Amino acid sequence: MNRIIIFDTTLRDGEQSPGASLNVDEKLVIARQLDRLGVDVIEAGFPISSPGDFQGVQLIAERVHRPVICGLARAVSPDIDAAGEALKPAKKKRIHIFIATSKIHMDKKLRKSPQEVLESAVSAIKRARNYTDDLEFSPEDASRSDLEFMCQVLEAAIDAGATTINIPDTVGYAVPEDYGRRIQDILEKVPDARKVVISAHCHNDIGLAVANSLAAIKAGARQVECTINGIGERAGNASLEEIIMALKLHRDTYQADTGINTQELWTTSRLVSNLTGLEVQRNKAIVGENAFAHEAGIHQHGVIQDRECYEIMHAEDVGWRGTNLVIGKHSGIHAIERILKERGYQLEKEQLREVIQRVKEVADREKKVEENDILALARDVMTDLAPEEQLLGLKEFSVMTGNAFTPSATIKLTIEGKEVVGTAVGVGPVDAASHALQSILNANIGPQLQLKEYGLKAITGGTDALAHASICFEDEIGNQFRGEAIDKDVILASVHAMVKGANRAINFRKHFPSGVPERTSSKSAASAPAQSPKL
Ligand code: KIV
Ligand code: ZN
Protein backbone atom coordinates (compact mmCIF):
# COMPACT_ATOMS: atom_id res chain seq x y z
CA MET A 1 0.00 0.00 0.00
CA ASN A 2 1.20 3.52 -0.80
CA ARG A 3 0.72 6.06 1.94
CA ILE A 4 -0.91 9.11 0.35
CA ILE A 5 -0.15 12.47 1.97
CA ILE A 6 -3.35 14.44 2.57
CA PHE A 7 -2.66 18.13 2.12
CA ASP A 8 -5.66 20.12 3.27
CA THR A 9 -6.08 23.59 1.80
CA THR A 10 -9.50 24.45 3.28
CA LEU A 11 -7.98 27.42 5.11
CA ARG A 12 -6.19 28.76 2.02
CA ASP A 13 -7.76 27.80 -1.33
CA GLY A 14 -11.03 26.95 0.45
CA GLU A 15 -11.17 30.27 2.20
CA GLN A 16 -10.83 31.98 -1.20
CA SER A 17 -14.42 30.82 -1.92
CA PRO A 18 -16.64 33.78 -2.67
CA GLY A 19 -18.62 34.53 0.49
CA ALA A 20 -16.32 32.65 2.87
CA SER A 21 -14.40 34.59 5.42
CA LEU A 22 -12.91 33.29 8.64
CA ASN A 23 -11.31 35.19 11.46
CA VAL A 24 -8.20 33.88 13.21
CA ASP A 25 -10.11 32.19 16.04
CA GLU A 26 -12.30 30.32 13.58
CA LYS A 27 -9.25 29.28 11.56
CA LEU A 28 -7.63 27.88 14.69
CA VAL A 29 -10.75 25.87 15.57
CA ILE A 30 -10.85 24.41 12.05
CA ALA A 31 -7.11 23.64 12.14
CA ARG A 32 -7.54 21.76 15.43
CA GLN A 33 -10.34 19.70 13.91
CA LEU A 34 -8.24 18.97 10.79
CA ASP A 35 -5.56 17.71 13.17
CA ARG A 36 -8.15 15.43 14.81
CA LEU A 37 -9.25 14.26 11.37
CA GLY A 38 -5.67 13.20 10.67
CA VAL A 39 -4.58 15.34 7.71
CA ASP A 40 -0.83 15.40 7.11
CA VAL A 41 -0.39 19.00 5.97
CA ILE A 42 -2.52 22.06 6.75
CA GLU A 43 -2.12 24.93 4.30
CA ALA A 44 -3.10 27.59 6.81
CA GLY A 45 -3.11 30.66 4.56
CA PHE A 46 -1.29 33.04 2.23
CA PRO A 47 0.56 35.24 4.76
CA ILE A 48 1.37 38.17 2.46
CA SER A 49 -2.22 38.47 1.20
CA SER A 50 -3.74 40.09 4.28
CA PRO A 51 -2.96 40.79 7.94
CA GLY A 52 -5.67 38.27 8.89
CA ASP A 53 -3.98 35.55 6.84
CA PHE A 54 -0.61 36.31 8.39
CA GLN A 55 -2.02 36.10 11.90
CA GLY A 56 -4.00 32.95 11.11
CA VAL A 57 -0.89 31.11 9.86
CA GLN A 58 1.12 32.34 12.84
CA LEU A 59 -1.48 31.27 15.40
CA ILE A 60 -1.95 27.83 13.86
CA ALA A 61 1.83 27.40 13.64
CA GLU A 62 2.01 28.17 17.35
CA ARG A 63 -0.83 25.93 18.54
CA VAL A 64 -1.17 22.94 16.18
CA HIS A 65 1.81 20.63 16.34
CA ARG A 66 1.23 17.20 14.75
CA PRO A 67 0.63 18.13 11.08
CA VAL A 68 3.01 20.12 8.91
CA ILE A 69 1.82 23.75 8.74
CA CYS A 70 2.21 25.34 5.34
CA GLY A 71 2.07 28.94 4.08
CA LEU A 72 1.65 29.98 0.44
CA ALA A 73 3.98 32.42 -1.34
CA ARG A 74 4.42 33.75 -4.86
CA ALA A 75 7.95 33.44 -6.22
CA VAL A 76 8.96 36.84 -4.87
CA SER A 77 11.02 37.74 -1.81
CA PRO A 78 8.38 39.64 0.24
CA ASP A 79 5.95 36.72 -0.02
CA ILE A 80 8.59 34.20 1.00
CA ASP A 81 9.75 36.32 3.93
CA ALA A 82 6.16 36.82 5.12
CA ALA A 83 5.51 33.05 4.93
CA GLY A 84 8.80 32.32 6.69
CA GLU A 85 8.01 34.81 9.47
CA ALA A 86 4.44 33.61 9.97
CA LEU A 87 5.59 29.98 10.15
CA LYS A 88 8.38 30.65 12.63
CA PRO A 89 6.61 29.09 15.65
CA ALA A 90 5.71 25.86 13.80
CA LYS A 91 7.21 22.53 14.87
CA LYS A 92 6.97 21.31 11.26
CA LYS A 93 6.73 23.95 8.54
CA ARG A 94 6.47 24.11 4.78
CA ILE A 95 6.60 27.00 2.34
CA HIS A 96 4.59 26.51 -0.84
CA ILE A 97 5.90 28.62 -3.73
CA PHE A 98 4.05 29.05 -7.00
CA ILE A 99 4.60 30.74 -10.35
CA ALA A 100 2.66 30.23 -13.57
CA THR A 101 4.23 28.27 -16.44
CA SER A 102 1.43 28.40 -19.05
CA LYS A 103 1.97 30.69 -22.05
CA ILE A 104 -1.17 32.70 -21.39
CA HIS A 105 -0.27 33.35 -17.74
CA MET A 106 3.38 34.17 -18.51
CA ASP A 107 2.47 36.54 -21.39
CA LYS A 108 -0.65 38.20 -20.02
CA LYS A 109 -0.42 38.03 -16.24
CA LEU A 110 3.26 37.90 -15.35
CA ARG A 111 4.66 39.56 -18.51
CA LYS A 112 7.75 37.43 -18.07
CA SER A 113 9.68 35.30 -20.56
CA PRO A 114 9.93 31.55 -19.88
CA GLN A 115 13.58 32.03 -18.87
CA GLU A 116 12.62 34.74 -16.36
CA VAL A 117 9.92 32.48 -14.89
CA LEU A 118 12.44 29.67 -14.47
CA GLU A 119 14.92 32.00 -12.80
CA SER A 120 12.26 33.44 -10.46
CA ALA A 121 11.26 29.93 -9.39
CA VAL A 122 14.84 28.95 -8.65
CA SER A 123 15.77 32.07 -6.72
CA ALA A 124 12.51 31.92 -4.70
CA ILE A 125 13.16 28.32 -3.68
CA LYS A 126 16.73 29.17 -2.71
CA ARG A 127 15.53 32.09 -0.59
CA ALA A 128 12.89 29.91 1.11
CA ARG A 129 15.63 27.49 2.21
CA ASN A 130 16.61 30.11 4.78
CA TYR A 131 13.37 29.24 6.60
CA THR A 132 12.82 25.49 6.09
CA ASP A 133 13.95 22.48 4.06
CA ASP A 134 10.35 21.39 3.46
CA LEU A 135 9.60 23.24 0.21
CA GLU A 136 6.75 22.74 -2.19
CA PHE A 137 6.78 24.17 -5.70
CA SER A 138 3.75 24.59 -8.00
CA PRO A 139 3.86 25.55 -11.68
CA GLU A 140 0.53 27.36 -11.73
CA ASP A 141 -1.83 26.43 -14.58
CA ALA A 142 0.23 23.25 -15.04
CA SER A 143 -2.44 21.40 -17.03
CA ARG A 144 -2.32 24.10 -19.74
CA SER A 145 1.47 24.50 -19.69
CA ASP A 146 3.81 23.28 -22.40
CA LEU A 147 5.00 19.93 -21.05
CA GLU A 148 8.65 20.28 -22.13
CA PHE A 149 9.05 23.76 -20.65
CA MET A 150 7.23 22.83 -17.45
CA CYS A 151 9.50 19.80 -17.01
CA GLN A 152 12.57 22.05 -17.38
CA VAL A 153 11.21 24.32 -14.62
CA LEU A 154 10.46 21.32 -12.40
CA GLU A 155 13.97 19.95 -12.88
CA ALA A 156 15.44 23.32 -11.90
CA ALA A 157 13.06 23.56 -8.92
CA ILE A 158 14.15 20.14 -7.62
CA ASP A 159 17.81 21.07 -8.10
CA ALA A 160 17.20 24.27 -6.14
CA GLY A 161 15.72 22.32 -3.20
CA ALA A 162 12.00 21.67 -3.77
CA THR A 163 10.93 18.49 -1.97
CA THR A 164 7.32 18.38 -3.20
CA ILE A 165 6.24 19.16 -6.76
CA ASN A 166 2.56 20.03 -7.02
CA ILE A 167 0.77 20.00 -10.38
CA PRO A 168 -2.18 22.40 -10.22
CA ASP A 169 -5.09 22.15 -12.61
CA THR A 170 -5.67 25.78 -11.71
CA VAL A 171 -8.62 26.38 -14.01
CA GLY A 172 -10.24 22.96 -13.63
CA TYR A 173 -9.71 22.18 -17.32
CA ALA A 174 -8.22 18.68 -17.16
CA VAL A 175 -9.90 15.32 -17.68
CA PRO A 176 -8.68 12.21 -15.83
CA GLU A 177 -6.90 10.56 -18.80
CA ASP A 178 -4.86 13.68 -19.63
CA TYR A 179 -4.15 14.68 -16.04
CA GLY A 180 -3.00 11.15 -15.11
CA ARG A 181 -0.79 11.04 -18.21
CA ARG A 182 0.76 14.39 -17.28
CA ILE A 183 1.74 13.03 -13.87
CA GLN A 184 3.23 9.95 -15.53
CA ASP A 185 5.12 12.10 -18.05
CA ILE A 186 6.59 14.20 -15.25
CA LEU A 187 7.72 11.09 -13.39
CA GLU A 188 9.39 9.81 -16.56
CA LYS A 189 10.88 13.01 -17.98
CA VAL A 190 12.07 14.95 -14.93
CA PRO A 191 15.32 13.60 -13.51
CA ASP A 192 14.94 12.99 -9.75
CA ALA A 193 11.13 13.31 -9.92
CA ARG A 194 10.90 10.00 -8.09
CA LYS A 195 13.06 11.32 -5.27
CA VAL A 196 10.50 14.02 -4.43
CA VAL A 197 6.77 13.83 -3.73
CA ILE A 198 4.54 14.50 -6.75
CA SER A 199 1.24 16.09 -5.74
CA ALA A 200 -2.17 16.68 -7.37
CA HIS A 201 -4.15 19.91 -6.96
CA CYS A 202 -7.41 19.90 -8.91
CA HIS A 203 -10.19 22.42 -9.33
CA ASN A 204 -13.75 21.42 -10.07
CA ASP A 205 -14.84 23.65 -12.94
CA ILE A 206 -16.18 20.73 -14.97
CA GLY A 207 -16.92 18.55 -11.94
CA LEU A 208 -13.83 16.34 -12.33
CA ALA A 209 -11.59 17.44 -9.47
CA VAL A 210 -11.96 14.21 -7.48
CA ALA A 211 -11.72 11.99 -10.58
CA ASN A 212 -8.56 13.84 -11.66
CA SER A 213 -7.02 13.48 -8.20
CA LEU A 214 -7.69 9.73 -8.24
CA ALA A 215 -6.18 9.45 -11.74
CA ALA A 216 -3.09 11.22 -10.41
CA ILE A 217 -2.77 8.71 -7.55
CA LYS A 218 -3.10 5.87 -10.03
CA ALA A 219 -0.31 7.47 -12.09
CA GLY A 220 2.07 7.76 -9.13
CA ALA A 221 1.20 10.97 -7.24
CA ARG A 222 1.91 10.57 -3.53
CA GLN A 223 0.11 13.68 -2.25
CA VAL A 224 -3.36 15.10 -2.96
CA GLU A 225 -4.47 18.63 -2.16
CA CYS A 226 -8.11 18.98 -1.24
CA THR A 227 -10.64 20.86 0.88
CA ILE A 228 -13.46 19.94 3.23
CA ASN A 229 -16.80 19.99 1.38
CA GLY A 230 -14.84 20.78 -1.80
CA ILE A 231 -14.94 24.52 -1.09
CA GLY A 232 -12.61 26.78 -3.05
CA GLU A 233 -12.23 29.31 -5.84
CA ARG A 234 -15.14 29.28 -8.36
CA ALA A 235 -16.51 25.70 -8.49
CA GLY A 236 -14.17 24.64 -5.69
CA ASN A 237 -11.33 22.18 -5.12
CA ALA A 238 -11.30 18.39 -4.93
CA SER A 239 -13.37 17.32 -1.93
CA LEU A 240 -11.34 15.64 0.81
CA GLU A 241 -14.16 13.42 2.02
CA GLU A 242 -14.91 12.12 -1.50
CA ILE A 243 -11.25 11.28 -2.21
CA ILE A 244 -10.89 9.53 1.14
CA MET A 245 -14.00 7.38 0.81
CA ALA A 246 -13.16 6.50 -2.82
CA LEU A 247 -9.70 5.33 -1.74
CA LYS A 248 -11.19 3.39 1.15
CA LEU A 249 -13.85 1.67 -0.93
CA HIS A 250 -11.44 0.89 -3.78
CA ARG A 251 -8.28 -0.16 -2.00
CA ASP A 252 -7.62 -2.86 -4.60
CA THR A 253 -7.71 -0.37 -7.44
CA TYR A 254 -5.59 2.36 -5.88
CA GLN A 255 -3.44 0.36 -3.44
CA ALA A 256 -3.38 3.47 -1.28
CA ASP A 257 -3.88 4.31 2.38
CA THR A 258 -4.20 7.60 4.22
CA GLY A 259 -3.96 8.66 7.85
CA ILE A 260 -7.53 10.01 7.89
CA ASN A 261 -9.94 8.95 10.63
CA THR A 262 -13.15 8.74 8.59
CA GLN A 263 -15.22 8.90 11.79
CA GLU A 264 -14.33 12.61 11.94
CA LEU A 265 -15.49 13.46 8.40
CA TRP A 266 -19.04 14.47 9.20
CA THR A 267 -18.10 16.63 12.19
CA THR A 268 -15.39 18.37 10.16
CA SER A 269 -17.78 18.99 7.29
CA ARG A 270 -20.40 20.56 9.59
CA LEU A 271 -17.82 22.65 11.41
CA VAL A 272 -16.42 24.08 8.16
CA SER A 273 -19.91 24.75 6.85
CA ASN A 274 -21.01 26.49 10.08
CA LEU A 275 -17.95 28.67 10.34
CA THR A 276 -17.58 29.63 6.68
CA GLY A 277 -21.33 30.07 6.19
CA LEU A 278 -21.05 27.92 3.01
CA GLU A 279 -23.89 25.44 3.21
CA VAL A 280 -23.43 21.85 2.10
CA GLN A 281 -25.85 20.94 -0.68
CA ARG A 282 -28.35 18.30 0.49
CA ASN A 283 -27.29 15.73 -2.09
CA LYS A 284 -23.53 16.28 -1.65
CA ALA A 285 -21.67 12.94 -1.71
CA ILE A 286 -20.56 11.59 1.70
CA VAL A 287 -21.62 14.53 3.89
CA GLY A 288 -24.88 15.88 2.39
CA GLU A 289 -28.10 15.69 4.43
CA ASN A 290 -29.50 13.16 1.92
CA ALA A 291 -26.34 11.11 1.40
CA PHE A 292 -27.68 8.22 3.46
CA ALA A 293 -31.44 8.78 3.13
CA HIS A 294 -33.53 6.23 1.23
CA GLU A 295 -36.72 7.78 -0.09
CA ALA A 296 -38.00 5.44 -2.81
CA GLY A 297 -40.18 2.59 -1.51
CA ILE A 298 -38.25 -0.02 -3.47
CA HIS A 299 -34.99 1.16 -1.93
CA GLN A 300 -36.45 1.24 1.58
CA HIS A 301 -37.64 -2.33 1.14
CA GLY A 302 -34.20 -3.43 -0.03
CA VAL A 303 -32.44 -1.65 2.83
CA ILE A 304 -34.74 -3.27 5.40
CA GLN A 305 -33.84 -6.73 4.01
CA ASP A 306 -30.12 -5.97 3.86
CA ARG A 307 -28.53 -2.50 4.05
CA GLU A 308 -25.95 -3.46 1.45
CA CYS A 309 -28.62 -3.72 -1.25
CA TYR A 310 -28.39 0.06 -1.61
CA GLU A 311 -25.60 1.20 0.73
CA ILE A 312 -21.94 1.06 -0.30
CA MET A 313 -20.96 2.63 3.01
CA HIS A 314 -22.79 3.45 6.21
CA ALA A 315 -23.53 6.77 7.79
CA GLU A 316 -21.63 5.61 10.88
CA ASP A 317 -18.48 5.08 8.76
CA VAL A 318 -18.19 8.83 8.27
CA GLY A 319 -19.23 9.70 11.83
CA TRP A 320 -22.70 10.94 10.90
CA ARG A 321 -24.63 12.10 13.94
CA GLY A 322 -28.26 12.87 13.30
CA THR A 323 -29.29 13.55 16.85
CA ASN A 324 -30.10 17.09 17.80
CA LEU A 325 -29.40 17.25 21.50
CA VAL A 326 -31.39 19.69 23.60
CA ILE A 327 -30.07 21.61 26.56
CA GLY A 328 -32.47 22.72 29.27
CA LYS A 329 -32.26 25.12 32.18
CA HIS A 330 -30.90 22.40 34.39
CA SER A 331 -28.43 20.82 32.00
CA GLY A 332 -24.92 20.99 33.34
CA ILE A 333 -21.87 22.63 31.92
CA HIS A 334 -20.55 19.21 30.92
CA ALA A 335 -23.45 18.65 28.53
CA ILE A 336 -22.67 21.92 26.75
CA GLU A 337 -18.96 21.17 26.70
CA ARG A 338 -19.63 17.71 25.29
CA ILE A 339 -21.74 19.05 22.43
CA LEU A 340 -19.09 21.62 21.54
CA LYS A 341 -16.29 19.07 21.68
CA GLU A 342 -18.15 16.47 19.65
CA ARG A 343 -18.86 19.07 17.01
CA GLY A 344 -15.20 20.05 16.74
CA TYR A 345 -15.40 23.36 18.62
CA GLN A 346 -12.20 23.12 20.64
CA LEU A 347 -12.31 26.59 22.17
CA GLU A 348 -9.96 28.53 24.38
CA LYS A 349 -10.98 28.47 28.10
CA GLU A 350 -12.22 32.05 28.09
CA GLN A 351 -14.32 31.48 24.97
CA LEU A 352 -15.79 28.31 26.45
CA ARG A 353 -16.78 30.15 29.62
CA GLU A 354 -18.51 32.80 27.56
CA VAL A 355 -20.41 30.31 25.39
CA ILE A 356 -21.65 28.48 28.49
CA GLN A 357 -22.78 31.77 30.00
CA ARG A 358 -24.70 32.71 26.85
CA VAL A 359 -26.29 29.27 26.50
CA LYS A 360 -27.47 29.49 30.11
CA GLU A 361 -28.97 32.94 29.50
CA VAL A 362 -30.92 31.63 26.50
CA ALA A 363 -31.98 28.50 28.42
CA ASP A 364 -33.28 30.67 31.27
CA ARG A 365 -35.36 32.65 28.80
CA GLU A 366 -36.43 29.98 26.31
CA LYS A 367 -36.48 26.84 28.52
CA LYS A 368 -34.63 24.79 25.93
CA VAL A 369 -31.71 25.40 23.60
CA GLU A 370 -31.03 23.15 20.64
CA GLU A 371 -27.63 21.93 19.53
CA ASN A 372 -27.55 24.26 16.53
CA ASP A 373 -28.30 27.25 18.79
CA ILE A 374 -25.27 26.31 20.89
CA LEU A 375 -23.02 26.07 17.85
CA ALA A 376 -24.30 29.41 16.57
CA LEU A 377 -23.62 31.01 19.95
CA ALA A 378 -20.10 29.54 19.87
CA ARG A 379 -19.54 31.14 16.48
CA ASP A 380 -20.92 34.42 17.78
CA VAL A 381 -18.42 34.35 20.64
CA MET A 382 -15.55 33.56 18.26
CA THR A 383 -16.43 36.48 16.03
CA ASP A 384 -16.86 38.95 18.90
CA LEU A 385 -14.61 41.97 18.59
CA ALA A 386 -12.12 42.74 21.33
CA PRO A 387 -13.30 45.60 23.62
CA GLU A 388 -10.70 47.97 22.15
CA GLU A 389 -12.08 47.27 18.66
CA GLN A 390 -15.64 48.23 19.62
CA LEU A 391 -15.41 51.88 18.67
CA LEU A 392 -19.13 51.98 17.88
CA GLY A 393 -21.58 50.73 20.47
CA LEU A 394 -25.34 50.29 20.04
CA LYS A 395 -27.20 52.25 22.74
CA GLU A 396 -30.79 52.40 21.53
CA PHE A 397 -32.70 51.30 18.50
CA SER A 398 -36.31 51.51 17.33
CA VAL A 399 -38.20 50.80 14.11
CA MET A 400 -41.65 51.65 12.84
CA THR A 401 -43.08 49.42 10.17
CA GLY A 402 -46.48 48.34 8.90
CA ASN A 403 -48.60 47.99 5.79
CA ALA A 404 -49.73 51.61 5.62
CA PHE A 405 -46.58 53.69 5.98
CA THR A 406 -42.90 53.88 5.04
CA PRO A 407 -40.66 51.93 7.43
CA SER A 408 -38.30 54.11 9.44
CA ALA A 409 -35.52 53.44 11.95
CA THR A 410 -33.75 55.48 14.62
CA ILE A 411 -30.38 54.38 16.00
CA LYS A 412 -28.47 55.87 18.91
CA LEU A 413 -24.79 54.88 18.94
CA THR A 414 -21.80 55.75 21.04
CA ILE A 415 -18.73 56.63 19.00
CA GLU A 416 -15.68 56.44 21.24
CA GLY A 417 -17.89 57.45 24.18
CA LYS A 418 -19.87 60.24 22.46
CA GLU A 419 -23.60 59.69 21.75
CA VAL A 420 -24.94 60.26 18.22
CA VAL A 421 -28.37 59.64 16.69
CA GLY A 422 -29.41 58.84 13.12
CA THR A 423 -32.87 58.41 11.58
CA ALA A 424 -33.74 57.15 8.10
CA VAL A 425 -36.43 55.45 6.04
CA GLY A 426 -36.12 52.41 3.81
CA VAL A 427 -38.07 49.80 1.86
CA GLY A 428 -38.22 47.67 4.99
CA PRO A 429 -37.10 47.95 8.62
CA VAL A 430 -33.64 46.43 7.98
CA ASP A 431 -33.05 48.73 5.01
CA ALA A 432 -34.13 51.71 7.13
CA ALA A 433 -31.75 50.64 9.92
CA SER A 434 -28.89 50.30 7.45
CA HIS A 435 -29.54 53.82 6.11
CA ALA A 436 -29.70 55.23 9.66
CA LEU A 437 -26.35 53.64 10.50
CA GLN A 438 -24.77 54.87 7.27
CA SER A 439 -26.02 58.41 7.92
CA ILE A 440 -24.28 58.38 11.32
CA LEU A 441 -21.04 57.07 9.84
CA ASN A 442 -21.05 59.58 6.99
CA ALA A 443 -21.66 62.52 9.32
CA ASN A 444 -19.25 61.52 12.07
CA ILE A 445 -16.51 59.12 11.24
CA GLY A 446 -16.48 57.62 7.72
CA PRO A 447 -15.75 55.41 5.83
CA GLN A 448 -18.60 55.44 3.31
CA LEU A 449 -20.11 51.97 3.51
CA GLN A 450 -22.65 50.29 1.29
CA LEU A 451 -24.57 47.20 2.31
CA LYS A 452 -23.61 44.60 -0.33
CA GLU A 453 -25.00 41.40 1.15
CA TYR A 454 -27.57 40.59 3.76
CA GLY A 455 -28.62 37.16 5.02
CA LEU A 456 -30.98 36.06 7.72
CA LYS A 457 -31.89 32.60 8.92
CA ALA A 458 -33.66 30.99 11.83
CA ILE A 459 -31.17 28.65 13.47
CA THR A 460 -33.78 26.18 14.62
CA GLY A 461 -37.50 25.95 13.74
CA GLY A 462 -40.32 28.05 15.17
CA THR A 463 -41.13 31.75 15.42
CA ASP A 464 -39.34 31.92 18.79
CA ALA A 465 -36.08 30.58 17.30
CA LEU A 466 -32.83 32.48 17.54
CA ALA A 467 -32.08 34.34 14.31
CA HIS A 468 -28.66 34.62 12.69
CA ALA A 469 -28.03 37.74 10.62
CA SER A 470 -25.01 38.28 8.40
CA ILE A 471 -24.08 41.35 6.42
CA CYS A 472 -21.28 42.52 4.18
CA PHE A 473 -20.38 46.21 3.81
CA GLU A 474 -18.19 47.53 1.01
CA ASP A 475 -16.19 50.77 1.27
CA GLU A 476 -15.48 53.27 -1.53
CA ILE A 477 -12.46 51.30 -2.78
CA GLY A 478 -13.95 47.83 -2.71
CA ASN A 479 -12.72 46.51 0.68
CA GLN A 480 -15.34 44.25 2.20
CA PHE A 481 -16.23 43.91 5.88
CA ARG A 482 -18.48 41.22 7.28
CA GLY A 483 -20.58 41.25 10.39
CA GLU A 484 -22.74 38.57 11.96
CA ALA A 485 -24.90 38.38 15.06
CA ILE A 486 -27.52 36.30 16.82
CA ASP A 487 -30.61 37.47 18.61
CA LYS A 488 -34.16 36.31 19.12
CA ASP A 489 -35.30 39.54 17.43
CA VAL A 490 -34.49 39.41 13.71
CA ILE A 491 -34.14 43.17 13.30
CA LEU A 492 -31.93 43.52 16.35
CA ALA A 493 -29.74 40.65 15.09
CA SER A 494 -29.41 42.55 11.80
CA VAL A 495 -28.48 45.84 13.50
CA HIS A 496 -25.89 44.12 15.72
CA ALA A 497 -24.39 42.50 12.61
CA MET A 498 -24.18 45.91 10.90
CA VAL A 499 -22.54 47.52 13.92
CA LYS A 500 -19.97 44.68 13.96
CA GLY A 501 -19.24 45.14 10.24
CA ALA A 502 -18.96 48.93 10.65
CA ASN A 503 -16.58 48.47 13.60
CA ARG A 504 -14.37 46.26 11.43
CA ALA A 505 -14.32 48.89 8.68
CA ILE A 506 -13.42 51.66 11.13
CA ASN A 507 -10.67 49.59 12.76
CA PHE A 508 -9.25 48.79 9.35
CA ARG A 509 -9.11 52.48 8.42
CA LYS A 510 -7.43 53.26 11.72
CA HIS A 511 -4.61 50.87 10.84
CA PHE A 512 -4.51 51.67 7.13
CA PRO A 513 -5.71 55.25 6.52
CA SER A 514 -5.15 54.90 2.76
CA GLY A 515 -7.52 51.92 2.74
CA VAL A 516 -4.77 49.60 1.46
CA PRO A 517 -2.52 47.55 3.76
CA GLU A 518 1.22 47.53 3.15
CA ARG A 519 1.82 44.25 1.39
CA THR A 520 5.39 43.71 2.31
CA SER A 521 5.72 44.40 5.99
CA SER A 522 5.09 41.43 8.22
CA LYS A 523 5.29 43.81 11.18
CA SER A 524 2.28 45.79 10.06
CA ALA A 525 0.48 42.51 9.39
CA ALA A 526 1.13 41.26 12.88
CA SER A 527 -0.38 44.31 14.54
CA ALA A 528 -3.30 44.81 12.17
CA PRO A 529 -6.92 43.91 12.87
CA ALA A 530 -7.66 40.21 12.59
CA GLN A 531 -10.39 40.52 10.00
CA SER A 532 -9.53 42.60 7.04
CA PRO A 533 -10.10 42.27 3.34
CA LYS A 534 -8.27 39.89 1.04
CA LEU A 535 -6.02 41.56 -1.47
O1 KIV B 1 -4.97 26.38 -8.20
C1 KIV B 1 -3.80 26.78 -8.09
O2 KIV B 1 -3.05 26.93 -9.06
C2 KIV B 1 -3.33 27.11 -6.77
C3 KIV B 1 -1.86 27.33 -6.62
C4 KIV B 1 -1.55 28.46 -5.72
C5 KIV B 1 -1.22 26.06 -6.20
O3 KIV B 1 -4.09 27.12 -5.82
ZN1 ZN C 1 -5.97 26.09 -6.31
Short description, anyone?
The chain is built from 18 helices and 18 strands.
Describe the 3D structure:
With 535 residues, this protein is α/β, with parallel strands linked by helices. 41% of the residues lie in helices and 20% in strands. The strands form five sheets. An eight-stranded parallel β-barrel has the order 2-3-4-5-6-7-8-9, surrounded by eight helices. A three-stranded antiparallel β-sheet has the order 13-14-15. A three-stranded antiparallel β-sheet has the order 16-17-18. The longest helix is centred in the last third of the chain and has 22 residues, at 490-511. It has three domains: 2-276, TIM Barrel (Alpha-Beta Barrel), CATH 3.20.20.70; 326-384; 388-511, Alpha-isopropylmalate synthase LeuA, regulatory domain (Double Stranded RNA Binding Domain). The protein is built from 18 helices and 18 strands. The structure holds 3-methyl-2-oxobutanoic acid and zinc ion (ZN).
CATH topology of the largest domain: TIM Barrel
Outline the low-pLDDT stretches. Answer: 519-535
Overall mean pLDDT: 90
CATH classification, class level of the largest domain:
Alpha Beta
Largest sheet: 8 strands, parallel, barrel
Our Rg estimate from Cα atoms comes to 25 Å
Shape: globular
> What's the name of the CATH homologous superfamily of the largest domain?
Aldolase class I
| Extended strand count | 18
Named once each, the bound ligands are: 3-methyl-2-oxobutanoic acid, zinc ion
Quaternary: single chain
For the terminal residues, how far apart are their CA atoms? 42 Å
CATH architecture of the largest domain: Alpha-Beta Barrel
The number of domains is 3
Number of helical elements: 18
What structural category arises from helix and sheet content?
alpha/beta
Strand order of the largest sheet: 2-3-4-5-6-7-8-9
- Beta-strand level of the residues, as a percent range? 15-25%
Q: Helix fraction?
A: 40-55%
